[in-house]
């Protein structure tokens, strides 16, 4: 969904609320026909006052205020709340425009963009879940380590499903590392799905898409980074495949992890890079963040390639 889709959602909300207000007006007029006459008088007086004001004449609104008072009394007398005919807003902060008076985006706007991303995440990959996680696709003959691929994956499934079930009372960082074709992305999506099913918000980004956004942002383009900094659970897939850009990749990545962790938010990182490659590519600061046992749980996928 684009920004203009989100904005057209606001005009839909405003139209819905206006229709409801019209219905209320009719309902009140039916109950107290005198109110319709009062409103007509009040509107006529208001028009008169406006043209007087435009002519630079002093204006007196006491008659309008008296009519408003009379209207309130009649409404309350008929059992209506005095605010029953006030404009209706689903969000009082931005009056259903998505923007605040200082032209910043309203919280409800940010929430809407986020929910939209969540919807997109939910709609795709309906066949990915811990329930559908079939361990039988993994070979059960022992590897060099003495464990079979299937045993390794069973362990990974246990740890990650426990993580998702414990969310948000689990380590802020979940690092899934290992070579391609071992099911890392699949596992990350299972975690995301479980977290969403438990009623939390999660979003999935490929590193390529995420770092492209950072790059555009660095160039001063209008990119809203709020969702990736504030979504409760963020999954970043394919970390290490994004192009490295000076003054962007490492800086933004560190800020993202740092700020999210400080805010108590959770981030899952899926990467083909081995731990020492993470250090080489992103430097000590990011490496030590991801390796910190008190904030990160690390899972290594090893074994033979399997195909999904
Ligand atoms: Zn709002």
Q: Can you tell me about this structure?
A:
With 308 residues, the protein is α/β, with parallel strands linked by helices. The chain folds into 2 domains: 3-77, no CATH class; 107-301, 3-Layer(aba) Sandwich (Rossmann fold). It contains 10 helices and 5 strands. The chain has helices at residues 3-31, 34-54, 62-77, 107-123, 149-166, 184-197, 207-218, 226-230, 249-262, 275-291, and strands at residues 173-178, 202-206, 233-239, 266-271, 296-301. Strands 2-3-4-1-5 form a 5-stranded parallel β-sheet, sandwiched between helices. Strand 3, helix 9 and strand 4 (266-271) form a beta-alpha-beta unit. The relative contact order is 0.11. The chain binds zinc ion. Zinc ion binds next to loops. Residues 91, 93-94, 106, 108 line the site of zinc ion.
Secondary structure: elements and pairs:
Elements: H1 3-31, H2 34-54, H3 62-77, H4 107-123, H5 149-166, E1 173-178, H6 184-197, E2 202-206, H7 207-218, H8 226-230, E3 233-239, H9 249-262, E4 266-271, H10 275-291, E5 296-301
Parallel strand pairs: 1-4, 1-5, 2-3, 3-4
Zinc ion binds at residues 91, 93-94, 106, 108.
Which structural traits does this protein have?
single chain; 308 residues; alpha/beta; Rossmann fold; 2 domains; five-stranded parallel sheet; 10 helices; elongated; binds zinc ion
Q: Which percent range fits the helix content? A: 40-55%
End-to-end separation in angstroms reads 28 Å
Strand order of the largest sheet: 2-3-4-1-5
**Gyration radius, to the nearest Å?**
29 Å
Q: Please state the overall shape, judged from the principal axes of the Cα atoms.
A: elongated
- Mean pLDDT across the residues is 88
Which fold does the CATH topology of the largest domain refer to?
Rossmann fold
Q: What is the tally of helical segments?
A: 10
- Domain count: the total is 2
Low-pLDDT sequence parts: none
Number of strands: 5
What's the main sheet like?
5 strands, parallel
CATH homologous superfamily label of the largest domain: P-loop containing nucleotide triphosphate hydrolases
Specify the structural class: alpha/beta
Ions, cofactors and other ligands present here are: zinc ion
Beta-sheet strand percentage? 5-15%
CATH architecture of the largest domain: 3-Layer(aba) Sandwich
Order of helices and strands: HHHHHEHEHHEHEHE
Task: Report the CATH C-level class of the largest domain.
Answer: Alpha Beta
